Amino acid sequence: MRTFRAPGRANLIGEHTDTTDGLVLPAAIDRAVVLTGVPGGQRLRLRSAQADGELDLAADGSEVPPAGWGRFVAAVAAELDVLGRAPVGFTGELRSDLPQGAGLSSSAALEVVLTIALADAAGLNLEPLEVAKLGRRAEHRAVGVPSGLMDQAASVLGRADHAVLLDCATLEHRTVPLPPDHELLVIDSGVRRELETSGYAERTEQLRAALPVLAGRRPAEVHPDELPTLLAGLDELPARRLRHVVTENARVLAAEAALRADDLEALGAVFAAGHASLRDDFEVSVPELDTLVELAQQAGASAARMTGGGFGGAIVVLVPAARAEGLAEEVLEGYARRHPQRAVAVHRCRAADGAGIVVEGEGRVHVPDGHG
């Protein structure tokens, strides 16, 4: 019996930058997808503790269910087949304590845990970032969303009590310490992201229309002071999309500097500016997320902003641990008054180690060496 674990992630800053090879600052969290089972045969026989039904698919990914989480299983198996993985089967059960639709990348965690388990079953060795890249390809294959690498990379590169600054172009990465006396709160707005796929693809296309003004440079290589000149010849919509991405890359570096200096006031200002940019320039926030950020700031958060793709989902909050419970109560009460139709949820998290094989009897995860 083998057990594999892949965490979700909370992105601290660097939203909608990864699709243009930008900078991101996520943290893996102590909520995860876990797969337990045994290798053997030529079939993938999996069941989920959270979803109805069981899967019985060819181990080479050649059989694709028309809908549901089985599409991700088939896509991962197919991508591994492209790499030459022997079609060794696996029988097991998936469990998850990652809430669906809250912007914590449950699909990426599923892709990563399947990749690690199926590679292990066939004796195929993959470096952490190879796992991440395969997971992203599988997501494209399964659902066609033009996602970047951040979600899968955060799941494999995470380190306890740290965020990971990743350059999505070079894949260079470094860990950034989080305040040891703080917790991460992920507060789910209760707004499911029905428009995520279409809206995400639309924003990507609008941003792509603006990129020619950069003359081949990445947005991460552009200083915000250059924007007035660069945006002058663009229509308003692509100009706002590009302004968000350029300034968001700068905010990732500013957040890193604030964290290393333990300057929580500066960090709070960076988060606030990032949320405003996502709301006004990239237009992926919703009123419920704006309310949650406002309430968290009023209740004493060190930093708060929406996280994930937007169009619903959750906010991420850095709060002193001693204040976490009180802040959560205040936010819940205020939100219930202003959005009584929404079922809000608070998830208290800490930054966790990345994906790997759970070492039986020791309660720990063996994480391959992939840290910068």
Describe what this molecule looks like in 3D.
- The protein has 372 residues and is an alpha+beta fold.
- It has ten helices and 13 strands.
- Strands 1, 2, 3, 4, 5, 6, 7, 12 and 13 form a nine-stranded mixed beta sheet that branches. A four-stranded antiparallel beta sheet has the order 9-10-8-11.
- Helix 2 (106-121) crosses helix 3 (128-143).
- The longest helix is centred in the middle third of the chain and has 25 residues, at 236-260.
- Residues 368-372 have low confidence and may be disordered.
Task: Give a quick summary of the entry.
This protein has 372 residues and is α+β, with helices and mostly antiparallel strands.
CATH topology of the largest domain: Ribosomal Protein S5, domain 2
Helix content: 25-40%
Major β-sheet annotation: 9 strands, mixed
Uncertain regions spanning at least 5 consecutive residues: 368-372
Query: What is the overall pLDDT average?
Result: 92
Number of structural units classed as domains:
2
Give me the count of strands: 13
CATH architectural designation of the largest domain: 2-Layer Sandwich
Name the helix and strand elements from N-terminus to C-terminus, one letter apiece: EEEEHEHHHEEEHHHHHEEHEEE
Quick one: overall form? Answer: globular
CATH class of the largest domain: Alpha Beta
Strand content: 15-25%
Q: Roughly how many Å apart are the termini?
A: 32 Å
Q: Which structural category fits the helices and strands?
A: alpha+beta
